[in-house]
Structure formats: C-alpha cells, structure tokens
C-alpha cells in the first residue's frame, strides 16, 4: 500500500485513530480545539481521503461515519521513508543522529533504542 497522506490528512487520521469511527463533525470539533478550520474544509478533505482510499465511509446512517483504512504504523513508515530519502538523502544514521541530537530522549527511550539495536545487530549476525 503506497498511500501518502498529506499533513492535513494526517491530522484527520490522528483523530480517527484515536476515536475509531467518526463523523465529519466529530473530526472537525476535535481539530477545532487546536486549529482554526472550517467545517466544509474538513468535509472536503475527508471526501478526498475517501477517494484516495485512506478512509472508508459507512453511508448506512444519515450521518456518514468514516474509519481509517491506513494504520498509524503504515502512515509512520511512509512518512519516515519520505523523510529519509528526501531530507537525509537515504542516510538512516543521519536521521537517528539528528533526532537524538535535537530531542532529549528519556532513559527509558534510550534503553528501548539500545535493546532494538542489540536485536537488530543479533539478527544480522545470524
């Protein structure tokens, strides 16, 4: 699946992932807490997302309900692939170094990263 949501579409997906099935009004009300956006803009974006295959629309009730087709993990992978290839010219190590240098990781996060690297290294040595 090669679906690449835009930044605005990702904001909508965040709401849907959090709440499950949502109406346009549900999404709009949640987005309005942090951003000034018109209802018709949210509606149009969600219609486009349906056309792109990012969400499914249940039209059985008077109020249409939308649910995500793409998972959070798929969206993260797509965004990360795009960032690595365009911003970091394919260098995963540059991405990790930049991320760790710019944002202070907690001890638990550092431990999790170390465990992942150990597992990754052990997998490649087999």
Looking at this protein, list some descriptive labels:
126 residues; mainly alpha; 2 strands
Could you explain the architecture of this structure?
- This protein has six helices and two strands; from the N terminus they run H-H-H-E-E-H-H-H.
- With 126 residues, the protein is mainly alpha-helical.
- The mean pLDDT is 90.
- The longest helix is centred in the C-terminal third of the chain and has 18 residues, at 107-124.
- Helix content is 63%, strand content 6%.
- It has helices at residues 7-19, 24-32, 39-52, 72-86, 92-102, 107-124, and strands at 55-58, 65-68.
- Helix 1 packs across helix 2 and helix 2 crosses helix 3 (39-52).
- The protein is elongated, with a radius of gyration of 18 Å.
């Amino acid at each position: 699946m090669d679906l690449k949501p835009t930044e605005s579409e990702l904001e909508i997906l965040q709401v849907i992932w959090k709440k499950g099935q949502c109406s346009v009004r549900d999404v709009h009300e949640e987005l309005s807490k942090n951003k000034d956006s018109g209802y018709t803009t949210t509606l149009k974006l969600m219609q486009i997302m349906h056309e792109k295959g990012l969400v499914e629309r249940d039209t059985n009730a008077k109020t249409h309900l939308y649910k995500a087709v793409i998972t959070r993990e798929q969206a993260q992978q797509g965004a990360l692939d795009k960032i690595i290839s365009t911003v970091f010219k394919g260098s995963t190590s540059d991405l990790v170094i930049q991320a760790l240098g710019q944002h202070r990781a907690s001890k638990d996060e550092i431990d999790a990263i170390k465990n992942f690297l150990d597992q990754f290294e052990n997998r490649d040595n087999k």
